[in-house]
Amino acid sequence: MSGRTGSTSPTLTAGPRHGAGHVGGHLTGPAPAAGVGPPARPTPEDARARFFAPDPARVTADLSVRLGSLLLDSPVMPASGCFGPELEGLLPMDRLGAVVTKTVFSAQRGGNAAHRLSETGMGMINSVGIPSPGVPGFLRDVLPRYHATGRPVVVSVGGLRPEEYAEVAEELGDAEYAALEINVSCPNLEHGGTEIGADPEAVARITREVRHRAGGRPVWVKLAPMVASVTEVARAAHRAGAEALVVANSYPGMVVDPGTGRPVLGNTVGGVSGPAVKPLSLRLAWLVAQAVPVPVIGCGGVSTAQDALDYLRVGAAAVQVGTATFARPQAMAEIVRELDDRCAGAGVAKLPELVRPGGDHEDATTPTRHPGRSADDRPSRGNG
Amino acid sequence: MSVPNGWTLAPVGGPRPGSPTWDRAEVVENAPVGDRHYRMRLAAPTITASARPGQFVMVSVPEETSVRAVLPRPMAIHRRHPTDGQVEIVYGVRGVGTQALSQVPVGGALQVVGPLGRGFDLAPETRRLLLVGRGIGVCSLMTCAEDAVAAGVEVTAVVSARTRDALVGASDYRELGISRLIEVTDEEGDSDPHTVGALLRDALDEAPAQQVLTCGSERLTALCARLADRWAATLQVSLEAHMACGLGYCHGCATAATTAASESALICADGPVFAVRREGRVSARG
Ligand SMILES: Cc1cc2nc3c(=O)[nH]c(=O)nc-3n(C[C@H](O)[C@H](O)[C@H](O)COP(=O)(O)OP(=O)(O)OC[C@H]3O[C@@H](n4cnc5c(N)ncnc54)[C@H](O)[C@@H]3O)c2cc1C
Ligand SMILES: Cc1cc2nc3c(=O)[nH]c(=O)nc-3n(C[C@H](O)[C@H](O)[C@H](O)COP(=O)(O)O)c2cc1C
Ligand code: FES
């Protein structure tokens, strides 16, 4: 899918978006030892340049989705912490629904001890611990770079205490952003990030407090996956005014090094993400979509258009992509383009027609039983 | 990887590297070298053209394989062949990802992102250069030898490994025509820092290197620090960390433990090469 080889492949100068900063370098020999920069010459062609090149033959579908008061160009956006302005030039961003920042805290934070990440079966675990520049640093150095992507910016808001969330929203003031996403669920904060996300009362209180400071702009809540009842927390967030719910964050876990017998991560525990968690988060998205009348944004293990469609078909309105971007910086754009292609293949012009069970001719995996029974997510039920 | 006592890490100087790109790089060669390494040659002209000494690439493990290794593998750019538009990496088969890479046939394609990171800063005034690498760490240094030899710099290189079959880079150094190659191994008993130090003092005390660059061993880094002191040379080291993005946005590769207000340097974006300095000493260049 990545090799859009059919397109005529213009040289570097053709793509306005990727030109900036892409130092070409010379083709004739390695740079001399001295600290001289390579001469700026047009970059010869590569798969990235072809991926960015306009392709007049490509048929685009109407992939727009409505999330509460926001109308987004597509249902695909990054997951917090798995994206950054550093991807400019590697990932065409023009058709992302939004960009989401790494979680911002009120105070400047350094993050967790190294070793911070490790691969696990079909996934990974991280205990980055959310290093944060604090709100002033964020407004000065980080937010403008997100705006430069040209996409609606969703600011992820964190807190180690319930009050800290409101402080962040307050400090953000009337800075430009499209929505706030409340991260009540990062499993690897020092003091009970998990507890906040598991407590419906606390989630409701934080949601209300943040809403009061968001200047009328939408507030989303990103749910923690490992809680007694995800629907109860979802309902609490909804009642407190959340306009959309992201389902879900990474799963608390740990990995032991067989050599040393000790936990691999400097922080002992971390969050598990990637394809391994997709069935888990898919179920949670399905449960939440039935429990609350607000849009659900599926998150967990999305790396292909099929993954995205799976979430949309169990009731999500959009998806976030995290881990997949590490191995394929262009993953989100590939998903958008494949959704286009699937629409074209199915002879439909709009996303909802594709999402409808059976809407996609090529797709044999359409569930025969529409997930319609009322949600009950007690652990003792439905997992036999 | 820690720094020897009394020394600290600082960013390298020199120009900021250009922005990285990615490619679906055709595998032109993927063959065993020695008893535990593979040499992989990848057709990636844009990466080849802009790669600077000591930079690395992220090689994604093919998604078709059953392991579904989700994280790309950081690999030093070992050689650049600009006329062919090809880069070489040399890798050891360690776990599932490198195992899967070793199975990729010639003609297959891999997603490669790069060139990444801040590489070695070769000072224009340097006339004599010492490169000290152990094991696969030699790979990070080879592009320095490429540039230094092309610029007429006198290069001395140490390659160290456990066994002769595990030595990496000796043939490349010879092909590049460096001035002096010192091969040491544990099995032959000449790879301990004491012996290597004596060999290097013998070789270079009269006309010392102005820059020492190293990768792959803490003990050799400590030796290099002592030699740099002795010769009033500067020292740079290339470090490793587990990585996810390789670009600086995931914050997974911080250098050292920190819960303090400010985060320590990121190996992928601020490194992987760092200047090693005597604590408290200010020097103009890495
Ligand atoms: C800047 C840089 C340059 C490197 N250059 C080379 C090179 O030229 N040749 C070479 O053989 N190796 C090199 N390495 C180390 C190489 O990345 C690891 O050996 C490799 O990732 C191991 O993958 P695996 O599938 O064999 O192991 P697995 O055990 O399956 O790996 C699991 C996870 O841990 C990570 N990991 C394991 N060991 C290391 C390590 N030592 N460093 C970083 N990540 C690790 C993997 O990337 C993966 O995410 C380099 C590392 C860095 C940071
Ligand atoms: C390295 C890393 C950093 C993350 N940082 C954050 C964060 O700052 N805030 C947050 O809400 N989620 C964070 N997450 C969780 C992701 O946003 C996402 O919910 C999770 O990874 C599941 O999606 P995935 O399987 O597509 O990766 C992080 C995940 C990873 C892997
Ligand atoms: S690997 Fe992501 S910040 Fe360094």
From TrEMBL, chain A:
PANTHER family: DIHYDROOROTATE DEHYDROGENASE (FUMARATE), DIHYDROOROTATE DEHYDROGENASE (QUINONE), MITOCHONDRIAL-RELATED
Lineage of the species this protein comes from: Bacteria, Bacillati, Actinomycetota, Actinomycetes, Kitasatosporales
Compositional bias per record (Polar residues), positions renumbered to this chain: 1-12
Compositionally biased tracts (Basic and acidic residues): 373-384
UniProt pathway: Pyrimidine metabolism; UMP biosynthesis via de novo pathway
Cofactor note: Binds 1 FMN per subunit.
Protein name: Dihydroorotate dehydrogenase
Binding site for FMN: 80, 102-103, 183, 222, 274, 300-301, 322-323
Signal sequence interval, chain numbering: none
Coarse class of the protein's main subcellular location: cytoplasm
Family note: Belongs to the dihydroorotate dehydrogenase family. Type 1 subfamily.
Entry GO terms, CC: cytoplasm
E.C. designation(s): 1.3.-.-
Organism: Wenjunlia vitaminophila (Streptomyces vitaminophilus)
GO biological process, one term: 'de novo' pyrimidine nucleobase biosynthetic process
InterPro entries in alphabetical order: Aldolase_TIM, DHO_dehydrogenase, DHOD_1B, Dihydroorotate_DH_1, Dihydroorotate_DH_cat, Dihydroorotate_DH_CS
Region annotation (Disordered) ranges: 1-47, 350-384
Active site annotation, chain numbering: 186 (nucleophile)
Positions of the Dihydroorotate dehydrogenase catalytic domain: 65-341
UniProtKB/TrEMBL annotation, chain B:
Binding locations of FAD: 97-98
Domain FAD-binding FR-type: 20-122
GO MF assignments: 2 iron, 2 sulfur cluster binding; flavin adenine dinucleotide binding; metal ion binding; oxidoreductase activity
Record's keyword annotation contains Translocase: no
Presence of keyword Iron-sulfur: yes
Binding site for [2Fe-2S] cluster: 245, 250, 253, 268
Keywords linked to the UniProt accession: 2Fe-2S, Electron transport, FAD, Flavoprotein, Iron, Iron-sulfur, Metal-binding, Transport
Entry note: cofactor: Binds 1 FAD per subunit. Binds 1 [2Fe-2S] cluster per subunit.
Cofactor(s) annotated in UniProt: FAD; [2Fe-2S] cluster
Region (Disordered): 1-21
GO BP terms: pyrimidine nucleotide biosynthetic process
Pfam families registered for this protein in UniProt: DHODB_Fe-S_bind (PF10418)
PANTHER family according to UniProt: DIHYDROOROTATE DEHYDROGENASE B (NAD(+)), ELECTRON TRANSFER SUBUNIT, DIHYDROOROTATE DEHYDROGENASE B (NAD(+)), ELECTRON TRANSFER SUBUNIT-RELATED
Similarity comment: family membership: Belongs to the PyrK family.
Protein known as: Dihydroorotate oxidase electron transfer subunit
